[in-house]
Amino acid sequence: MLRRLGVDAVEVRKPEELEGLDGLVVPGGESTTFMRLMRLYGLDEAVRHFQGPVLGTCAGMIVLGRDYLGLVDIAVDRNAYGRQVASFEADVEVAGDDTPLRGVFIRAPRLREAGAQVEVLAELDGEPVLLREGRFIVSSFHPELTDDTRVHERFLDLVEEETGVRA
Ligand code: GLN
Q: Global pTM?
């Protein structure tokens, strides 16, 4: 998705690979595995010190939240929409935008609580599923799995604001 938007995207697995990057995406996957490996490689501390905008999707949202890296003031319940078979797609309502966004929810986390600084960007049935706190954007769904580029563009807007760099 980022490459489609003209971004020079690289994969990050080790702390030193974060150096010089203008933004970071913590993707979906399995948050327990992410955290185990991030601790092993010291990537947890490196991400804590990373200064640029960060987009966390699904497991990435969990990792950025209160229970793990503590960078975004949110508490989530993992897999709270059900097991793998209960994964689903649904239209989510975007604040300030008449066109809904198709959300792909795969064993998605569900927001339990958010701090006062956290802004709700989109909701599913009245529950926040896309949020922003400062330079952090988190989504409980997978915005990279549809053709809709709005979430990534929003993230790139933050990158542009922080660095003056635009793809
Ligand atoms: N269930 C996963 C977790 O708890 C998240 C799933 C996903 O990223 N699609 O980490």
A: 0.95
